[in-house]
Each structure stands twice: as C-alpha cells, then as structure tokens.
Amino acid sequence: MVTYGPPGMLKIWRPADGALLAEIATGISSKVTGFAAGLVDGRPFVALSSYRQPMRLHALEDSTENPITIPEAGNGVVLGIVGSHIVAGHFEHERMGLHTIRMWNISGRKVGPDIRGEAEVTTVAGRTLPTAYIGRADGTVSLTDLVTGRDLCNPCRLPSRPRAMTVTDSGDLVVGFGSDLARIRPPVP
C-alpha cells in the first residue's frame, strides 16, 4: 500500500501487518491535487500532481531514482495510470471543476484528443490501454477510448456521483457511489 503525507513523502506499507517498508522524498512543497498508483512498463509507480510543481512519476522499487516530470501537463490533476500513460483532469476555467480529460505519455507528449463533458469529472479508472472508465458528477460512468475520445458503449447512470472506481482483472468496473458499491460488466469485449 502507498500513501502520501507530510513532509512530502511517499510511504510504502506492508498490508499484512502495517509495517512501514520504505519512504520516498518527493520534493513536492505545495498541496498535492492528484495521486494514482499503477504499473508503467511493468514497474510500480505513483503519479502526483500539485498546485505549483509539474506532474511527476516516482518509481516505487527504487527510492533513489529521480522522478519523471511532465511539465507539459500544466495544471493537470492526476486521476489514473493506464498502461504507460497518465490520465489527468484539466480545468477549463480557473478552478471551476475538472471537465476535460487528457492523456499523457511519460515523455510528456499528449496522446489523443481533449475529452470534454458537461459534468465535472469525479474519478477515473484505467481498464486496458487505451480505455478507461470516466465517472462524472451527474452520476454517469462512460467507458471511453482515450486515443479517439469516443465512448465504447452508452454511459451507465448511477443514483449518485461516483466517488471511487477500480477495474477487476476481467475488465469489470467496481464503483463506489453514496454508501454503495456496484460491479458493472460493460457490453463490450
């Protein structure tokens, strides 16, 4: 398990007994706006975004490795890692909610179009590159191809806004909304 906390440290914990295994200094001095953990080219990484510093990726297996920074992402808020890409939400207007999704590769190149929606983005869960589930404040969850920007099926409507999502090994979505959880199987392979 990985957590982030003062003073700008990633902490790696053993889930079985809660033992602290390692700490990684991030060098982030401003408020963290986004956090996601995932595998990049088979290696465990954490992606972080903050108000005043560029988006960055920290390798978890080598605390001495310099982070990969992605200044091109601007004020993007890290929402997820899909394959070797970071999915970030972006503000259309100064801090008026994340309405746009962009995908970045680790070299800093934007991949695919801006994916805009009327409702604010609340959560993202990567499926398999190039697809991800996008949850929005209006209670919808869409399965979207991040390279083309197209939805792969009709959005699912939940009774309330999705707060957290994860994807099972079979590609099903587990989504938390309100005080409930649901497992959803998309009508696509």
Plain-language structure description:
This protein is mainly β and 189 residues long. The protein folds into two domains: 1-116, YVTN repeat-like/Quinoprotein amine dehydrogenase (Methylamine Dehydrogenase, Chain H); 125-189, Thrombin, subunit H (Beta Barrel), CATH 2.40.10. Helix content is 0%, strand content 55%. The chain has no helices and 18 strands. It has strands at 2-5, 9-13, 20-25, 32-40, 43-50, 55-59, 68-70, 77-82, 85-91, 98-105, 110-116, 121-126, 131-136, 140-145, 156-157, 162-167, 173-177, 180-184. Strands 4-5-6-7 form a four-stranded antiparallel beta sheet, with no helix packed on it. The protein has a four-stranded antiparallel beta sheet with strand order 8-9-10-11, with no helix packed on it. A four-stranded antiparallel beta sheet has the order 12-13-14-15, with no helix packed on it. The protein starts with a strand and ends in a 5-residue tail after the last strand. The relative contact order is 0.11. The mean pLDDT is 92.
Describe the secondary-structure layout.
Blueprint: E1 2-5, E2 9-13, E3 20-25, E4 32-40, E5 43-50, E6 55-59, E7 68-70, E8 77-82, E9 85-91, E10 98-105, E11 110-116, E12 121-126, E13 131-136, E14 140-145, E15 156-157, E16 162-167, E17 173-177, E18 180-184
Antiparallel strand pairs: 1-2, 2-3, 4-5, 5-6, 6-7, 8-9, 9-10, 10-11, 12-13, 13-14, 14-15, 16-17, 17-18
